[in-house]
Amino acid sequence: TYPVTLFTSVITPALHPVFSQIQNDIDQIRENYLNVLKAISILSFPLIVFLAVNAKSVITIVWGGQWQQSIPVFQILGIAALFQPVLNTTGSIFLVRSKTNWLLKVGIVNTIVTIAGIVIGLQYGIKGVAIGYTIAFLLMLFPILYIVFNKLLEGSLFEFFRKISTALKLVLLIGISNAVLLYFVKDIYIS
């Protein structure tokens, strides 16, 4: 999901200076951050789901038929990729709230959990590594989001899910419609 990474790599560095100007207004930071996440999720979630559901065609077109074995790995990593753009922005909130010590601790725990997931997955091959990474990512996702929304932004994680509900509906629509379409035309793909 290089386009998504490129998009968030442009936005994320801009968040800290913008939020620093309003650092004493936690409600304004929270509202602006939620709006940024809504935009990111509306742009990235459907793209990631489309790529994961259509992995066979995407991989064949982009890398060629010799990469067919990477399809399940691509799809597994798509699960983690769904929320990666959102998680990429959280560092700015730790910084603007002057909680770099929390950011360091979260980063250390995240690194340990991720390495553990990868190491455990290694014994099961490349798919095991993808599964281990994805599980580790998901294990860290909600605690990090909880810290950001409930502790740093003095709000609620439910606000986040309400704000991205449009993107989640798009994901369901795209995912289900693509899966149904692929089911009925499963013999039609680029080889």
Beta fraction of the residues? under 5%
Mean pLDDT across all residues, rounded?
88
Q: Shape from CA axes? A: globular
Q: What is the succession of H and E elements?
A: HHHHHHHHH
What is the CA–CA distance across the termini? 22 Å
**Uncertain runs with pLDDT below 50, 5 residues or more?**
none
Helix content: over 70%
Total strands? 0
Q: What is the CA-atom radius of gyration, in angstroms?
A: 18 Å
Helix tally equals 9
Structural class: mainly alpha
Largest sheet: none
Tell me about this structure.
The protein has 191 residues and is an all-alpha fold. Helices cover 83% and strands 0% of the residues. The protein has 9 helices and no strands. It has helices at residues 2-20, 26-53, 55-63, 71-87, 90-96, 100-122, 125-152, 157-163, 165-184. α1 packs parallel to α5 and α4 (71-87) packs parallel to α7 (125-152). The radius of gyration is 18 Å and the shape is globular. The mean pLDDT is 88.
Question: Can you tag this structure with a few keywords?
Answer:
mainly alpha; single chain; about 190 residues; 9 helices
List the helices and strands and how they pair.
Elements: H1 2-20, H2 26-53, H3 55-63, H4 71-87, H5 90-96, H6 100-122, H7 125-152, H8 157-163, H9 165-184
Care to give the gist of this entry?
By secondary structure, the protein is mainly alpha-helical. The chain is built from nine helices and no strands. It has helices spanning 2-20, 26-53, 55-63, 71-87, 90-96, 100-122, 125-152, 157-163, 165-184.
